[in-house]
């Protein structure tokens, strides 16, 4: 009997997701997720990245499974495990804080100071059908600690490119922390971000998972990088003249 996956994908979808592969071996698959695609679940009746992983199913019905998630409008590196042992290993490494994630973001100007860390308490709030994270006091019900590092890479009168590193894994924490610093991310309407930058429309959340370093099941560490998507590059060119200075 021929194995039939539970999710039916079009040839175009299969070609697309296979074209997003950044690196892979027998244990993992790293993909460059586009903005606008949910990692899992979601209310939109469309295939998620988790559904699209059926494009990599083997004849025995086994297929990769996501190790972590990215917000729907965030682009960039996302990791999937190809086997159950790899999933267990990578899941434990993620929980132990052994993943190092680096994001790039655009804001209307640099934060003050231009680099530093943000550490404090957040709590989840539901407004209608949407979920938000809010800065709160340590003693608030359901408060969780969130810790991020940031660094301004390049800035002009119109925009700034910020490097962000989440040291904890809370929902929306980079977005909330930048808003807390008075520099919400471009295109982030949920947390008060500007919808235009240097006279150009920010058509989506300008947040990109640029690199991911993680321990490998066979030992050592792997680092995977995702190039900036075209819409991000266009806004960088408009606001910063196309350069990112280290």
UniProtKB/TrEMBL annotation:
Residues 27-180 form the Pseudouridine synthase RsuA/RluA-like domain. SUPFAM superfamilies: Pseudouridine synthase. InterPro entries: PsdUridine_synth_cat_dom_sf, PsdUridine_synth_RluA-like_CS, PsdUridine_synth_RsuA/RluA, RluA_PseudoU_synthase. Gene3D superfamilies: Pseudouridine synthase. Keywords: Isomerase. The keyword Calcium does not apply. PROSITE patterns: PSI_RLU. CDD domains: PseudoU_synth_RluA_like. It is an enzyme of class 5 (isomerase). GO terms for molecular function: isomerase activity. Its EC number is 5.4.99.-. Belongs to the pseudouridine synthase RluA family. This is RluA family pseudouridine synthase. The lineage of its organism: Bacteria, Pseudomonadati, Pseudomonadota, Alphaproteobacteria, Caulobacterales.
């Amino acid at each position: 009997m021929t194995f039939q996956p539970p999710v039916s994908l079009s040839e175009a979808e299969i070609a697309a997701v296979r074209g997003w592969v950044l690196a892979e071996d027998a244990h993992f698959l790293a993909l460059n997720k586009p903005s606008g695609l949910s990692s899992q679940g979601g209310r939109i009746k469309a295939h998620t990245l988790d559904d699209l992983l059926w494009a990599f199913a083997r004849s025995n019905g086994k297929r990769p499974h996501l190790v972590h998630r990215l917000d729907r409008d965030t682009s960039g590196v996302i990791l999937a495990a190809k086997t159950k042992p790899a999933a267990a290993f990578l899941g434990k490494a993620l929980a132990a804080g052994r993943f190092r994630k680096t994001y790039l973001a655009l804001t209307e100007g640099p934060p003050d100071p231009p680099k530093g860390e943000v550490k404090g308490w957040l709590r989840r709030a539901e407004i209608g059908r949407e979920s938000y994270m809010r800065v709160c006091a340590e003693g608030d019900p359901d408060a969780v600690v969130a810790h991020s590092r940031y660094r301004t890479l390049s800035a002009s009168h119109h925009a700034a490119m910020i490097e962000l590193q989440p040291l904890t894994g809370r929902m929306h924490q980079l977005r909330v922390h930048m808003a807390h610093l008075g520099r919400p991310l471009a295109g982030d309407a949920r947390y008060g971000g500007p919808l235009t930058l240097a006279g150009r429309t920010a058509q989506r959340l300008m947040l990109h998972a640029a690199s991911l370093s993680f321990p490998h099941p066979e030992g050592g560490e792997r680092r995977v990088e995702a190039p900036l998507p075209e819409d991000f590059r266009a806004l960088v060119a408009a606001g910063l003249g196309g350069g990112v200075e280290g």
